[in-house]
Amino acid sequence: MKKTPILFGGVILVVSLWIVRIALTPAPGNRMEDQGREHVSPQEVENTTYNSNPPTSGQHIVTWVKPGIYKIPQSEGELLHSLEHGYVVIHYNCAVNESEACKTLITELESIATKKKLFKLIVVPRPQLDTTIALTAWNYIDKFDSFDKKRIEKFIDYDRDHGPEQTME
After folding, report:
1. Is residue 79 a contact partner of residue 129, using CB atoms and an 8 Å limit?
2. Measured between alpha carbons, how far is 38 from 29 in angstroms, rounded to an integer?
3. What would the pLDDT profile of 14-24 be if each residue is shown by its tens digit?
4. Residue 123: in which H helix or E strand, if any?
5. What is the 3-state secondary structure (H, E, C) of 63-116?
6. pTM of the model as a whole
7. CB neighbours (10 Å) of residue 4?
8. Residue 128 is part of a domain; what is its CATH number?
């Protein structure tokens, strides 16, 4: 009977340490200034200057890109709306380099998204990207040139489903 309070205290201690560790762990990627979330026309999206490439917030259109793996670039305004719904977008740039290494990269990115059940995840090429990989979520971005599975999964796990507009999809 006396073991129950000790066991309960141990569980509380472990949970408390876990919560403190999470609270002290910095968010992956870089936090960007919020540029709002107004719905506008596609023409207004084209004329908007965002504070990052790819953008992480700002004016966007009323439709959004559904979860999936896309082989062609998607609408900037729709990708932003997906971020607003809590999606994470995995952008890649292989437009200049169609090598075997690039095909491997795409396969690895698709594998992570599939492993995560494509829940609120989009994998999409972005020819105007200035790095090989960019991860975006609402107000967060992480850009790098070499595949890093742990870094990508950490970003997804931290940021997915945390957009300002909560949706069920």
Report:
1. no
2. 24
3. 666 656 555 55
4. strand 121-125
5. CCCCCEECCCCCCHHHHHHHHHCCCEEEEECCCCCCCHHHHHHHHHHHHHHHHC
6. 0.85
7. 8
8. 3.40.30.10
Asked whether 169 and 88 are in contact (CB, 8 A), the reply is no
pLDDT, tens digit (0-9, with 9 covering 90-100), for 132-151: 999 999 999 999 999 999 99
Which residues of the chain have a pLDDT value below 70? 1-11, 14-25, 95-98
Residue 107 domain flag: yes
Tell me, yes or no, whether 104 lies in a domain.
Answer: yes
The parent domain of residue 155 ranges over 30-159
The predicted-structure confidence for 3-12, as pLDDT tens digits, reads as follows 666 666 666 7
Give me the sheet containing 88-92, strands edge to edge.
30-31, 140-144, 133-137, 88-92, 121-125, 68-69
Identity of the residue numbered 167: T
Q: Which two tokens stand for residue 93?
A: 């740039």
Separation in Å, CA 32 to CA 10, 27, 82, 110, 136: 39, 12, 17, 26, 10
Domain count for the chain? 1
Question: Is residue 23 included in any domain, yes or no?
Answer: no
In a domain, 167, yes or no: no
* Residue 164: Cβ within 10 Å count: 13
